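Fig. S4 source data, part A: sequence.
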Amino acid sequence: MTDTAAAARVSDTPLIPRDHLFGNPTRAQGKISPDGKWVSWMAPWERVMNVFMAPANDPDNPRRMTSAKDRPIPQYFWAPDSRSVLYIRDKQGDENYLLYSVPVDSVEGAEEKCLTPFEDTRVQVVGGSETIKDKILIGLNNRDARFHDVYLLDLNTGALELVFENNEWAGFEADDSLTLRWAVRQNAAGGTDMHEIIDGVVAEEPRETTGLDDALTTGMAGYTTDGKTLYWLDSRGRDTAALYAEDTATGERVLVAEHDRADIGGTMRHKQTGVVQAYNVTYLRTQHHAIDPAIGEAFAWLREQLEGDFGVQSRTDDDRRWLVWNDPLTAPIASYLFDRDAMTLTKFYVTKPELEGAPLQPMHALEIKARDGLTLPSYLTLPPQSDPDGDGVPDRPVPMVLVVHGGPWARDGYGFNRTHQWLANRGYAVLSVNFRGSTGFGKKFISAGDKEWSGKMHDDLLDAVEWAIGQGIAEKDKVAIMGGSYGGYATLVGLTFTPDVFACGVDIVGPSNLETLLETIPPYWEPLVKQFHERMGDPSTPEGVEFLKSISPLYKAQDITRPLLIGQGANDPRVKQAESDQIVEAMQRHNVPVTYVLFPDEGHGFHRPENNIAFNAIAENFLAECIGGRAEPVGDVLAASTAQIPTGREHVKGL
């Protein structure tokens, strides 16, 4: 424990152990099989997350379906015919995800089969069906790493049938008959051209097109089962993406849903017809809107039963039983079985029962004004004991960590956030800001970040820090910046372009040189590269290269005056290890201290809990030294991880 004022102020609050927040959940990713006979979930086996299932009427009699021993399975789903469980896995973080299958009648953990047994291949699911339940369409880039050929995959035999050889397209849309209907690619402006496919032939001219400004907010959102309606999320001629229904016979479009401040998010479809029954929209918090009255009644009943936020995570084909997640916000997320006929809710599991009763803190959703008047939707969590009246302002300023999201074409949201809870428990205010360029708030908000990576996007973060200091939330000289991917880049920008603002920085898999970042993007991103060039900077022109250099922290490494911690995965396909290596080398050349943690079995982020916990152990002790919160000692967690510390071990207490 670090003996400082910040640590002392939370000393009466129990320290939440790191492994309670960042260790394996007891259960997660619950699903109910389409036929309703089975329930499934992920749980640790030999300390690695694997898939389990049990009869729906006997959930306490589970059977393990998978046998992953090195890396957790990131995602799994049920085959539409309920005869098998499907999952994806990569190798040591290389993001070459292959598709695997396990039949429901297999002997425990014994009959896993790779359905896509190819090297250096990344599988995509192109289409599924409500009526053809034993097949799906997948994309494979094993012929040309840049483009995914489309195959019809028989889920029970593993047979692959080539449907479309792809030499130019970024993506496809299929209908319920597993027929390809559209091919999509980027145009010269960085927008999207959408070509209809008729009898397997792509039309020469696009039927629909967008410019750059609509490219991230406009696209198809699927057909109804009969193919008579095509849904669109579309921002053309407006700012936020609205939901439209197009009559495929006449081309007539009807507006289904819109919101003035946020894009329409997910939809809930009728299990047989594919007609939209409900949709959600997230500005500061997520709101669920039912179109179908029966769905509306179910939502209203669930709202009465559950504290905090909830959503539907899985449904049976007959739609009589749902799995519902519930985020109480200051308690661990739970999952319930909801019987719509009996109107009963049965607790299925709590993700992290060890957090029940832990001193979890409320999150405050708020709006911060940028210097040019743009409103930045943001989220603040305060340390325990600091805000007795609960108004979102501590009784006196506290150290603060600005946690910057990755992407940057992504967003922060409201709800249980283990990083916020961890850092608040250590004595810090934690602020996450949806800076311009973030998605979900309309196309103008995204486009306001174009070619502003170290400019106005960074100004938004500085304005949020100034706001927090002005409100009496943050101590001016004790603000840290931390983030992964783009958030790691923002950390490096903070310490190089504005070296006096932040007391220290934690960069996780962040690029240091945007020119080399764009030179080394994965080949399957090549069909989308124009968007990167238009929104970041174009390395194909001399002026573009100069611009990218001018906004790259690598060339200002000598200006760093505050402590920096860097974490990197050796197999990262997006932000190569060289991005971290080169700024560490530059800092060493200028005798600037840096602590560098490298994981040889990780990619873009740390997915093995042992590695994540090890890095966070280092990070919290680093932050405690810099801005004075408390920390759980590093202890022996490094021994369980693969962490290598090439330089800077001496700068972190306990290393």
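Fig. S4 source data, part B ends here. The mean pLDDT is 96.
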